[in-house]
Model the fold of this input.
Amino acid sequence: MTPLELIASALGVLAVWLTVRQNPLCWPIGLVMVALYAWFFFEVRLYAQVLLNGVFAAMQLYGWWQWTRGSGGEGGRPVVGATVMEIGIGLLVAALGSVGLGLLMTHTEAAYPWPDATLTAFSLLAQLWMALKRWQCWVLWIVVDVLYVAFFIFQEYWLTAGLYGLFTGLAVMGLREWRQARVVQ
Done:
């Protein structure tokens, strides 16, 4: 456990809790967290995770813009459900992305290219749905976070595994709160 991992974990908990509460400050706090995690993952050679956190940095800015300037009644985006087509296309693109990224990662010294790539691809989909305030993002986050817990326990990154366990609990809370807050289309 490093100080970098500790600080990133604390910011991660705060950012996800603010996301559950639909507070737009989740995005700039999340931006700092993903930058710190990108550094951490680079040091432990989980390069798809570095890439994921780099993309998450851009998505933090996109989400912040969506939540503060999106199509909601008060300048923000409302919580809505994803369509069946959005879900199907999203899952297909994430699956194809995990294969493509996995193939790329096998040509590096990446520690665990296939699980790293798969979790990365599906995390990107969950993050996109979160930025668009699709309540289904929380269902996907629950699945991804549980898999991350196992992945990080296997590597003995205990604090990060604990963080993802906490993220799982927050995702359950987010699912409940966002489903109640959703606008029926």
